[in-house]
């Protein structure tokens, strides 16, 4: 069958050009969206009297038959069909003849591929949002379990201050909360229907764009036909949100890789998320965490590729825009799988509290708490900071800890220091005292968990 656009051409396409030009090998996954859009379009054409009611029924019945045949495997696509839009329409015309040819009235592939892409991405955003909520559930459940369990907090990968594990997990909860909010923003901004924009300038045929927009679940039709067919901001925004979220996944995966090592031994990752070595029988490698850390690179690549495609394209439609889909599909698949893997890994990973506790005596974790205590006794913070710094230096030189310091030691460090000026130096006391809003005290972590759970409950049914 000749291409549906080939009327003004004397020659067919060169074979290599035909293959290079085709997108059917990857955009066929949008077949259901394409058929949904066509059904809404023909219903509108019938309502407007542009086709008859009988013709619209014939077209709809045939389109539903095509959908069933695709899903049952009875239809095989090939590059001669060019793309999913031409493939479906070509099959429809083979089935219905001239009646099938009426479907493309008052639309172009330019707006058709846009409405397909938006519908497909809207559906996938809801799927990804669901997986993000699942990940948030895993984090909040684990945070609740470890809300008062103490661990080492790091800055610059150096021991910094004592924290609770619940506090640590709720930090990631906040990251993925923002990811959900970014997705929702993207969804709301893209929730406008380009169908009926045609090639770039609208149409002289009396269509009802509000009908097709509402039929397809959009808030309203897009405002400007030229922008409608050339806009890919929604894909760029989605890829940006995906990249940020994958970066969050990669950060946590990196920590799991570190903490799973013998040098740390802070966690025990379940066997179902690890692999062995082909040569070293003793190995239990955190391969899923490493893959999660690595997968972010391909999503970054998807985003940069799309920004590069769009950067020099004049209004309105350009064939460059066909390159919008493979990166989007890849990012969708990668993000969904990564979220599912991370949620499962968190659920089946336990913290080795005995190993973590052995680190409390290293790195002067309570130094900041002592300085803050001195501030409460009347010292300016910078003076307190300097004195505690001298204490650290003294302890390092004498191979001792704060608890080992006697009156003579303190006097040698600074005349102001006495034993009675020291607070409870235990790590537990340091953690429990950090009750500032957003802090690591178990009481404050429980508040964060409660607020987080309330937020999760409020969005689950949206």
How large is the radius of gyration?
31 Å
Under CATH, the topology of the largest domain can be stated as Fumarase C, Chain A, domain 2
Provide the number of structural domains: 3
Strand content: under 5%
**How many DSSP-defined strands?**
6
Query: Roughly what percent helix?
Result: 55-70%
Number of helices: 19
The residue-averaged pLDDT reads 95
For the sheet with most strands, the description reads:
2 strands, antiparallel
Q: Give the CATH H-level superfamily of the largest domain.
A: Fumarase/aspartase (Central domain)
User: What ranges have pLDDT less than 50 throughout 5 or more consecutive residues?
Assistant: none
Q: Which architecture of the largest domain would the CATH scheme give at its second level?
A: Up-down Bundle
**Run of helices and strands:** HHHHHHHEEHEHEHHEHHEHHHHHH
Q: Give the overall shape.
A: elongated
Task: Summarize this structure as a short list of keywords or feature phrases.
elongated; Fumarase C, Chain A, domain 2; single chain; two-stranded antiparallel ribbon; Ribonucleotide Reductase Protein R1, domain 1; Fumarase C, Chain B, domain 1; two-stranded parallel sheet; 462 residues; 61% helix; mainly alpha
């Amino acid at each position: 069958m000749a291409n549906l656009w080939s009327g003004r051409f004397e020659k067919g396409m060169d074979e290599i050009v035909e293959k290079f030009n085709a997108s059917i090998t990857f955009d066929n996954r949008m077949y259901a969206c394409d058929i949904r859009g066509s059904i809404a379009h023909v219903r509108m054409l019938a309502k407007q009297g542009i086709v008859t009611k009988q013709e619209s029924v014939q077209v709809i019945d045939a389109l539903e038959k095509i959908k069933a045949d695709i899903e049952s495997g009875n239809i095989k696509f090939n590059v001669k069909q060019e793309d999913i839009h031409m493939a479906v329409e070509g099959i429809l015309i083979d089935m219905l003849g001239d009646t099938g040819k009426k479907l493309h009235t008052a639309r172009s592939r330019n707006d058709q591929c846009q409405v397909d892409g938006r519908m497909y991405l809207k559906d996938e955003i809801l799927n990804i949002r669901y997986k993000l909520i699942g990940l948030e559930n895993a984090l909040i459940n684990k945070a609740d379990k470890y809300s008062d369990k103490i661990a080492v907090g790091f800055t610059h990968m150096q021991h910094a201050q004592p924290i609770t594990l619940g506090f640590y997990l709720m930090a990631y909860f906040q990251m993925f909360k923002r990811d959900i909010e970014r997705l929702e923003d993207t969804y709301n901004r893209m929730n406008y229907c380009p169908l009926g924009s045609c090639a770039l300038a609208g149409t002289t045929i009396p269509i009802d764009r509000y009908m097709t927009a509402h039929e397809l679940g959009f808030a309203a039709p897009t405002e400007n036909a030229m922008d409608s067919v050339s806009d890919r901001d929604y894909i760029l925004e989605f890829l940006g949100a995906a990249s940020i979220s994958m970066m969050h996944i990669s950060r946590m995966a990196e920590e799991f890789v570190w903490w799973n090592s013998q040098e740390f031994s802070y966690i025990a990752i379940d066997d179902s998320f690890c692999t062995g070595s082909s040569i070293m029988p003793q190995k239990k490698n955190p391969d899923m965490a490493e893959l999660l850390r690595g997968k972010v690179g391909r999503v970054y690549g998807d985003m940069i590729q799309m920004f590069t495609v769009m950067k020099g394209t004049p209004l309105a439609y350009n064939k460059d825009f066909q390159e919008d889909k493979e990166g989007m599909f890849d990012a969708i698949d990668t993000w969904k799988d990564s979220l599912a893997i991370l949620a499962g890994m968190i659920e089946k990973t336990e913290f080795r509290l005995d190993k973590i506790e052995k680190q409390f005596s290293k790195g002067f974790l309570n130094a900041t708490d002592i300085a803050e205590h001195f501030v409460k006794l009347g010292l300016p913070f910078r003076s307190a900071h300097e004195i505690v710094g001298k204490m650290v230096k003294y302890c390092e030189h004498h191979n001792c800890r704060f608890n080992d310091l006697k009156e003579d030691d303190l006097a040698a460090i600074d005349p102001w220091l006495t034993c009675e000026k020291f607070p409870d130096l235990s790590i537990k006391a340091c953690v429990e005292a950090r009750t500032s809003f957003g802090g690591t005290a178990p009481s404050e972590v429980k508040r964060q968990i409660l607020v987080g759970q309330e937020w999760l409950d409020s969005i689950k049914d949206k």
